[in-house]
Amino acid sequence: MSWTDERIERLKNMWAKGATASQIADELGGVSRNAVIGKAHRLGLEQRPSPVKPGEEKEAKKPVAAAPKPAPKPEAPKAAEEAPAPIPGAARPNPPRSAPEMQFRSIGPGGFIRQGPGDQQPPIPPAPPRRLVPAKPSPEVADKTGLLDLNDRVCKWPIGHPGEPDFHFCGQNANPGFPYCVEHCGVAYQAQLPRRDRRPPPPLPFGGPRVR
DNA sequence: CCCTGATTCGC
DNA sequence: GCGAATCAGG
């Protein structure tokens, strides 16, 4: 696989949204986690909480008997802590490690993170719903929206299961730019939570996309 | 063990 | 430019 503009764009979006490199790699397919990280760095869009970085200056390398790689050149420890220069539109610098900076965002239904005024992220997240939900009966949609009734303006959230007699689609007004209405967007697009806080374990009834 | 991102370096 | 290998922390 090669890094087409389309794939790079998806990488940027997901990376900006906080998706892990693994998730991005799975999503894009054809690339490894390392490939994603490498590409992200090359694109210059790193600067995200690394589990390793915030620690101490790493320098001491353990001498392994069979060390195929030469010792890296000693790097001068940079103690330059730049004062935060609030330049609108400029890339957000690393938040000071000692001063935890909370991000205040409103969270919509389903943990959907709304964009703040400063956040400009027009590109729409693709990502179809990952899990099958019990298909709650949507609000009154008297007329069942069938497959042929789908267009860009109606919510394509499935109600019921394909093959069932009353299988249809939500059919409400779609959230502009999204394939679903506002309500189902809240279900389809989940905020990326810390693993610990992540809701259910994988509820996949069939195997699952375990690749590794 | 699992996961994470960072970095290196041969290609 | 790419990404496997490696490192290092959780």
TrEMBL record:
Pfam families linked: GcrA
Biased composition (Low complexity): 82-92
Ranges for region Disordered: 40-148, 192-212
Residue spans of biased composition, Pro residues class: 120-131
Top-level taxonomic group: Bacteria
InterPro entries reported for this sequence: GcrA (IPR011681)
Name of the protein: GcrA family cell cycle regulator
Source organism per UniProt: Sphingomonas limnosediminicola
Organism phylogeny: Bacteria, Pseudomonadati, Pseudomonadota, Alphaproteobacteria, Sphingomonadales
